[in-house]
Design a protein that fits this description.
By secondary structure, the protein is mainly beta. The protein folds into 3 domains: about 50 residues, no CATH class; about 90 residues, Immunoglobulin-like (Sandwich); about 55 residues, Dockerin domain (Type 1 dockerin domain, Orthogonal Bundle), CATH 1.10.1330.10. The chain has 2 helices and 13 strands, in the order βββββββββββββαα. The strands form 5 sheets. A 4-stranded mixed sheet has the order 7-13-12-9, with no helix packed on it. Strands 8-11-10 form a 3-stranded antiparallel sheet, with no helix packed on it. A hairpin with a 6-residue loop joins strand 12 and strand 13. The longest helix has 9 residues. The chain is flat. It starts with about 30 loop residues before the first strand and ends in a 7-residue tail after the last helix. About 25% of the residues are buried.
C-alpha cells in the first residue's frame, strides 16, 4: 500500500514514513544530475533530474550520449556513459555490444565501461524501431593519476597547477574527488611524483 513506509513489490519508491527512493538516484535513472523524488503514487518523479552540465552529443531526434565536460579527461578506470534513446529503439550498443547496457527508463540508457590509459573511443549505436542505426562517437582520455597537465609524467608542472587550484573544486587537481583541492591531493601527487605509468 503506497504511503505505508515500505517499498512494496509493485512500488518504485515510498512516500510514507521517512520515505524511500529504494537506493535510486537521478544518475541511476539515466540522468546526469539532480534530485530524484517519489510521487504520491509511489513512482519515481524525475522532474528534478536533468542532463544540465553534461555535454550532450546528439545523433538525431531523441538519441544522445551525455558526458560531463570535466569527464572528457579523467583518472577513473571505470566510466559511466549515459544518454537518451527513442522509446521504440530496441537496443543501445557500445562498441557493438549490448553487454552491461542498462535501461533505467524506456527513454534512457547507461553503461559502465573500462578505460585504458590514453584515449578511449566509444561508438554508441541505437538500433531497432524507426530510428535504427543512429551512431555517436565519443572519446574519453584516461590520465596517469596526478598528471594534471596530461603530458605523461607527474612533475613540478603538475604541482604548480595543483597549487594554483588550491581551495577550489578543479576536477583534475581534486585527486581524491572530495570537492576541494587540499593537502590530501598534494600528498597523492607527491606519492605519484615522476610516475609515467600505472
Amino acid at each position: 500500500m503506497c504511503g505505508d513506509g515500505f517499498v512494496d513489490p509493485d512500488e518504485e519508491c515510498e512516500t510514507g514514513g521517512t520515505g524511500s527512493l529504494n537506493g535510486q538516484t537521478c544518475t541511476s535513472r539515466g540522468y546526469y544530475q539532480g534530485t530524484l523524488s517519489c510521487a504520491s503514487n509511489c513512482t519515481f518523479n524525475t522532474s528534478g533530474c536533468s542532463y544540465a552540465g553534461a555535454v550532450l552529443v546528439q545523433a538525431s531526434g531523441s538519441f544522445s550520449v551525455g558526458i560531463s565536460p570535466e569527464d572528457q579527461t579523467t583518472y577513473a578506470t571505470l566510466f559511466l556513459l549515459f544518454g537518451s534513446k527513442s522509446s521504440d529503439a530496441k537496443t543501445v550498443l557500445v562498441n557493438g555490444s549490448e553487454e552491461d547496457v542498462k535501461y533505467p527508463t524506456s527513454t534512457s540508457w547507461q553503461a559502465w565501461v573500462f578505460l585504458s590509459l590514453g584515449e578511449n573511443t566509444f561508438t554508441i549505436t541505437q538500433t531497432g524501431g524507426r530510428a535504427s542505426s543512429q551512431e555517436v562517437q565519443v572519446t574519453i582520455t584516461r590520465l596517469v593519476m596526478a598528471d594534471i597537465t596530461a603530458d605523461g609524467i607527474v612533475d613540478d608542472y603538475d604541482l604548480s597547477l595543483l597549487a594554483t587550484a588550491w581551495g577550489s573544486d578543479d576536477p583534475l587537481s581534486d585527486l581524491n574527488e572530495d570537492g576541494v583541492v587540499d593537502d590530501y591531493d598534494l600528498s597523492i601527487l607527491a606519492a605519484r611524483w615522476s610516475v609515467t605509468s600505472l
